[in-house]
Design goal:
The chain has 13 helices and 17 strands. It is of the alpha/beta class and 392 residues long. It folds into 3 domains: 82 residues, Winged helix-like DNA-binding domain superfamily/Winged helix DNA-binding domain (Arc Repressor Mutant, subunit A); 102 residues, 3-Layer(aba) Sandwich (Rossmann fold); 157 residues, Rossmann fold. The strands form 4 sheets. The chain has a 6-stranded parallel β-sheet with strand order 5-4-6-7-8-14, sandwiched between helices. A hairpin with a 3-residue loop joins strand 2 and strand 3. Helix 3 crosses helix 4 and helix 11 crosses helix 12.
Amino acid sequence: MSTLLDQLELDPMVLPNQQITRFVRDLIKSGKLEAGSRIPPTSQLARQWRTHVPVVHGAMSQLMKEGLLARRPGKGTYVLAQEEKLSRVAIYMMGEQAGVTGTLATALLAELQKVMREQDIDPDIWFDSRPRAERDTVWPALAQAVQSRQVDAVILPQASPAIVDWIARLNIPYAVYGCSHHPHSVSEDRHLIAELPLRGLKDQGCSSVGLITGMHPDTKPNWQDKVHGSWEFHEHFHTIARQLALEVRPRWVFHPPYPEHVKLVESAEVFGYESFHRLWAQADRPQGLVITDNVMAQGVIKAMLELQVQIPGELKIVSARQSAYELFAPMPISHLVINDAEAARMLMLQIRRQFEGETCKMIHVAPALVMARPRPCGKGIEVGGELVEQST
């Protein structure tokens, strides 16, 4: 081992971390560094190659991302067998999500494919077209692919707790987006989703706020609600509203009658449209409105155009949206932006942790509040948080 690694002489004209990565990668792929071989500590290698410890650490981290090395806590860093290399990750999608754009799941799908290709991993998309009731049971086709080692891991951009349960029983690395209490989860910070829009509306001078959301509140949180964090969101929303002296009347809050009501894109847009009509039909209306779903926001925008609501004169709005999703709005709307690219990277990190034998912990992705900008002469259409002037 030491004789092989001694052969590297760093060229001062080339970045040292790139030389180290290329050198060790070639040794592994050529078979000169055999599977199971222990790599010396980074401090020893740094002295040996006359460079700095962070340089060696960075090079080794890159090789771990490529699935060539694995760090085993308390034991050291080892060469992985080629068949152990993380090379094919299944992305589980529900059948109705095929060909649909503008949703969280499809935005994450696009970013996951980018991240996987950067890491030399083959993204393998699986659309489960079984009837909804059957999806709560193991999908034989995917289980067979796992058993035959055609799939190394599974990522679920969006799924019910029952689906997460049977995926877990496949006994391979998996990660899921949105299950806020699950150790294999990556989730937007629901506290910030509730808090940031309220603070933004307060700063704009609002004293009362309404809410249109797909998250169903349950005063007695069951396992499913706990997983998705809906109960937490509603609790924190009302707590922050009281702290900021923002009035939130029950008839200004719109959510599905039951948790699975707005799973389809079409029903989410209709829900937003109908909820805003009911809100605006009231004699007393809030000064601000929070929308937690960009597909629902499409329905709200249609309703506002029909009703000729003046934004921000009559109502100020903060709507959540994915960073990859462009929300066309012919009025100044503030956005709570969820970073899809960061979420995809964190989902792959969860897979890497399990693949390398580490313990998984839930990861939160923090949203960013982007406030609406005043528009000259009331012209322009908002596209992805940017103002695009309309041609005449």
